Amino acid sequence: MHILALVNQKGGCGKTTTAIQLASALAALGHRTVLVDLDPQGHSTLGVGASAPAREASLARVLSRSGLEEDALPITEILVKVAENLSLAPSGAELAELEPELARAPGGEERLAEHLAALTGFADRVIIDGPPSLGLLTLNSLMAAHEVVAPVEPSLYSMHGLVRLVELVQLLAERKHHRARVRVLVNAYDGRSNFARQTVEEIRRTFPEQTLLTVIRSSVRVREAAARGLPVDRHAPHASIVEDYRALAAELERSRVAVEAPTIDQAQGLTVAREGLYLSRHDVAPEDVLLAGDFNAWEPDRGVLLEKHDDGSWTKFLPLKPGRYEYKLVVGGRWIADPLNPRQVTNAVGSKNSVLEV
Question: Which of 67, 74, 116, 220 is most buried, with most CB under 10 Å away?
Answer without folding.
Answer: 116
